[in-house]
DNA sequence: TCCGCTACCTACTCGCAGGTAAGACTACTG
DNA sequence: CAGTAGTCTTACCTGCGAGTAGGTAGCGGA
């Protein structure tokens, strides 16, 4: 799970600041994800990072600043992964599908990052949750734009945008929760989890219990869920 | 939000143990929900409860035991609220609808309880998360049974149960997330939030962008979302 | 009215973890 | 070979909060 550095003795090798900072952030994400914000000690983080505590403070400031930096880094990585994965000229369901695959692919390849980003950040109050809320807001806007663009909401005359936005919030929330659930049930590959959510939000239970499933255009038989990216 | 006791001076009124324990748990849920587990001090909880710290230890044991007791109490309350709200002889969509209304009704009336139950418990590791996972497991089983009972899953020959269970997990997760989202956007009434999730999971985006919405049987016109229970 | 029990308190101990002071080692530059 | 800038360390201070020792006050029973 987390790479176990051999116990450090004596002085660490001299490295340029940028490299050290990356190492420290990696270590911090690892420790925060395993222990949570409060239970993580700066001593432990510095030990995992292979340096001594004052380096932490010299480079990353206080514990809270360090945590915020972790959150920002992981949030940025995730949004970039999604933005890279989605194909803007496709029909809406395919865009949604590729977005979901990118999202679950990222989570699968960055369990620790997702853990600290979502679970930890949301449980600490104040600026951390705000940081997270900002990222979620961007994701919601993305989905909402997709929905609004893809069709009108004929039955909700004036509130179309708000309606779309809150549906998008529900979807994003479902994705976050399913990702959390996946952390505890890691045996399934990313594509299967993504396909499940895709079916749920695109088809709905009403269709699914009737046997209608969504499937990507022209690839496989309708009844096999898309394997997709591996965990 | 939380009832502000006047600053206590001198000795508290003598009360039977059961009553004190309830007071203490109320105070603990309040403080835990606002500050989180680690940031909450036993001093603060005892102060809010209107008693002195040794009483906490005498009645509720250690801080961890106190927290676990809070979680269990809130979890039990929530499952009871849902079980009471659902009507077993109705068709599946109506059962789901009433379950969702009961759930969001509970959360709306117990913001602090939900906060500590979900956000706090899930972010602390170990036994607390396990406690929560147990409750979630029961909720998932409930929904999965509903799905399996309501119809076959024709396209997934042998894995029907597992498929249903993981869809149920996604739904429960969506509900949890939407409830969290609702904590930060509390202006909407419970019924509207419940109706949104109902539409999402029952109809799916595929229908919704086409203008098809779900509505409770024989109450209103199909195009108005159900206002439902008030916050 | 005295006993004993339960509710309740003040006033501590003590370890842990965030944060820092002050200096030592390395490498580059002239 | 100085001088300087940046890297890195040991060894400490300090406050906060979990948990406790030991004692006081009200109440019910005989």
From TrEMBL, chains A, B:
One of the Pfam families matching this protein, by short name: TetR_N
- Point out the DNA-binding stretch(es): 41-60
InterPro entries recorded for this chain?
A: DesT_TetR_C, Homeodomain-like_sf, HTH-type_TetR-like_transc_reg, HTH_TetR, Tet_transcr_reg_TetR-rel_C_sf
Which key words are in the record? DNA-binding, Transcription, Transcription regulation
Q: Which residues form the HTH tetR-type domain?
A: 18-78
Molecular function (GO) terms listed? DNA-binding transcription factor activity; transcription cis-regulatory region binding
One biological process term in Gene Ontology: negative regulation of DNA-templated transcription
The record's annotation in PANTHER family points to: HTH-TYPE TRANSCRIPTIONAL REGULATOR RUTR, POSSIBLE TRANSCRIPTIONAL REGULATORY PROTEIN (PROBABLY TETR-FAMILY)
Q: Give the protein's recorded name.
A: AcrR family transcriptional regulator
Per the UniProt record, the source organism is Saccharothrix tamanrassetensis
